[in-house]
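Lecture 7 notes: from sequence to structure.
We start with the chain below.
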Amino acid sequence: MNLQPLNNRVLVQPKKAEEKTKGGIYIPETAQEKSQEATVVAIPTSNCPVAVGDVVLYDSFSGTEITVNGETLLVVKIEDIIAKITK
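Predicted structure tokens for the same chain:
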């Protein structure tokens, strides 16, 4: 990918919304909740608290949605990242 965020921004790929409940009921696209979980795709060259490949949680309604090579990505500020998820 030839896209690198600048300053205090991080490029993330949001996790897809759940399409059905644990009980097997399908949720229509209009009723699906927007996920706040994402995988970091690119970071700025400066000192950054997250690395490419990390799974993070970010503030709801934050970031700018862009499409690159048919893939929907989100550019968020580092300050909008709430936590890093470890397994």
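Points to note: The radius of gyration is 14 Å. The mean pLDDT is 84.
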